[in-house]
Amino acid sequence: MDRAALADFLRRRREALQPEDVALPPGARRRTRGLRREEVALLAVMSTDYYTRLEQQRGPQPSEQMLASLARALRLTDDERSYLYRIAGHNAPTTLSAHTHVAPALLRVLDRLHDTPAMILTDLGEELVQNQMAIALLGDASGYTGLARSSIYRWFTDPAARAVYPEADHERHSRAQVAILRSAHGLRGPRSRAGELVRALRTNTEFAELWDRHEVAQRFEDHKTLLHPELGAIELDCQVLFTEDQSQTLLVLTAPPRTEGYEKLRLLSVLGLNRFTEAEAEAEARARADR
Question: What is the pLDDT, as a whole number, of residue 73?
Fold first, then answer.
């Protein structure tokens, strides 16, 4: 880990960004160029103290997950992201894992979505980034590793993954999940991560039967009902935006004004803000404990 290079790189990339580049309000008169440290920390979902120590060459070696968050927050290109990993003492992301770097065009749109759940997914259902509303609605998916990073895999292996959908919709959602994986498998081939998922799931009877139907789809359902532990059933419309190569998707969940779903989303925004504030406090406490 090259602490001096890491600190200088983070500072220079922070100073190169303006609040409008990341959909933040300009705020009061700014004394320094670019973003403030606390703004980068907010975007990267880490404590301000932790980020400050990195810029001051005092922080611990960041994990790969933390580096991925910093790369997104600082809007790094693929080359800049690889450089960040190397100076932080990690191997640069391989070609296989590089597709998990969020498409900048989708991220710019996500930056501007604050009042409705939205997330960016790979074509294998891996949540790359969620806004606060999406986390409040569906839970934080950033902790999953391995095959479980795919929501398709979790749907067929983890009963908790199905709790967010009414039981009457399970069969339809199972078909949709398999059809999406079939599309990715056809594009990437059997030796890809999509093929690895298929091989792992073929032992599941439900998956195997649906896989043999050869149904193919890339779009999500246009309308769905989701179950929230505190707000109950929420009826939402789904809009999707694909990257040109179809490898990543921006999924946005909305409800028409003056509907019950719309009012529940307003309540969800309050819940999401409260939980985010609590998470910040916990992160700050962990950072202090690591000193």
Answer: 87
